Amino acid sequence: MVKQTSSNPVSKFISVFQYSGIAIGLVWDTSAALTVVMALTTLVSGILPAAIASIGGLFVDAVASAFQETGNSAQQMRSEALYYVFLEAGLVVLMTAAQRISTVCQSILRVLLGNKINVMILEKALTLELAHFEDSEFYDKLVRARREASSRPLSLVIKTFDLFRDSILLVTIGIWLYQFSPYAVLLLGLAGVPAFLAEARFSGEAFRIHRRRSAERRLQIYLEMVLTREDGVKEVKLLQLGKLFVQRYVDIFKNIYREDKSLVLRRGFWGYVLGLLASAAFYFAYGWVGFAAIAGTITIGQMTMYIAQFRLGQNAVTSSLTAVNGMYEDNLYLSNLSEYLSHKVPEQTGSKIKGPDSGAGILFENVSFNYPGSENPALHNINLHIRPGESLAIVGENGSGKTTLIKLLTRLYVPTEGKIFLEGLELSGWDIGTLRQKIGVIFQDFSRYQLVVGENIGIGDVKNIHQDDHVADAARKGMADVFIRDLPAGYKTQLGTWFKDGKELSGGQWQKIALSRAFMRNQADILILDEPTAAIDAKAEAEIFEHFRDLTANKISIIISHRFSTVRRADYIVVLEQGEILERGSHTELLHLDGQYATLFKLQAKGYQ
Ligand code: ADP
User: Fold this and answer.
1) What is the pTM of this model?
2) pLDDT tens digits, residue range 544-573?
3) Residue nearest to atom 13 of ligand 1 (CA)
4) 3-state class of 343 per DSSP?
5) Among 260, 288, 387, 548, which residue's CB has the most CB atoms within a 10 Å radius?
């Protein structure tokens, strides 16, 4: 978790690095070998520059001595100079190799890590409950986690390694400079600290500002989506929403920009001022070394070496500042990713694959349900028994709780109070896979898959997805076969507009596809249709339900519909109002009762006269 509320400056500073460990862990899991190679190459590129600089110094000294000496010792100095040339060249070759190997490792890791993280995100998504997807904040985490999965973690690892390399470099330089003067080490060490601390501080601040703004950015992304996607564009044009939405988008931007501008200006100012401090210290040391050479306390070669070390040191300070500077964005991503991945999902599944009484059907016992964060119960104290072979119809106004009841039965949600039993076993005791196989359900907002027709129907029973006869039979029962035959490639026609040669269907045709999907599931014990027929004409609906009744003769069928011509055929009818069962009984019984059902039925019957 992010310790972002801490006001302690040390922990604020450390917070910049808190996700580096997680990122390295991810890279390690992706490929331990590549991580080790990267660490080694980092070590090599941290140690070698200082060594190369000092050999440069020894070379200059050898050349200078060769000037002054004569005879044999001049000869010896010449070979020594040559030796240093070769040694330095060798080390440079080694360092270039280390850098190149590191780049290659990074390229490979980027691809592997991107894929690994994407798969982790998707696998986690499979374990989530429906409620998570309806929770805007959590859903936002998922979307953001996916967006930059392939670049951010590696980027953070590279920056962490860069910092590691720069630190090694600074330490090795420190060791060399110590021989010149411990005070020089102290001076240069201290000179870089303010700039570094300021950078880390601003980076932390940027991180916190961005996290706080998550809701605003989400709104911006939403507006972008409405304005640019096919399903939003129709209304945006006809209701002339464009200006309104763009203005909202710009307003959010202006708000964000004001805060950002202040941070960028402060960051720029302090970066410059504190950077000057480091440069001043560097040039002071530069002059100091020069005067020491003039005074004869160090050789020309040592002077060359120390100056080179100073330069390297300054570069290392600048480069580590750049690394810290970019880290907050990576941290932002990683904090989001780790929160998403570590989100605890309660154990969803029991282990039983059979109930004690296969003839017991479905039983709702005092079931109530509140949606997360909602005060009003969507369902209140529901008691209901559905026996095998029985067909149940649920009627009620919009929002009366019909769909919620189905969501509880299919264990998309768990009741807040009360229990639901299937075959005498509470739903929570069932193995979730077995339970889902026993139930076939099509919701009114069923999915329109961008797949070919055959698969769009076949996914109703994944095991038989490619059994063409089975699919054709289901299509016939769902009355989709007629228009499928007219499609350019029949069952092989691509549906939707996302892919090449995709055919878009009308609302009613899509519903027939969805119904056919339900007919694929002829092995299920419970079949549920939640209003998927609104766009189908009444005659076709009646015929489809006839097929549905045949299919469900000794099973449980549950139908939600606003058409009484369909509802009246059910064995048992339940009228829901504001989450409670208002009336129940057969069609005839309910007409006798002369309550709400009778009123609505007569109203609709009148409309047809
Ligand atoms: P019906 O299917 O009868 O039209 P629902 O079961 O969909 O009604 O909804 C019942 C009540 O629950 C409504 O008041 C609705 O606003 C609320 N509701 C439905 N879905 C959600 C949800 N995902 N989150 C919060 N409240 C919801």
Assistant:
1) 0.75
2) 777 777 777 778 999 998 888 888 888 999
3) 399
4) coil
5) 548
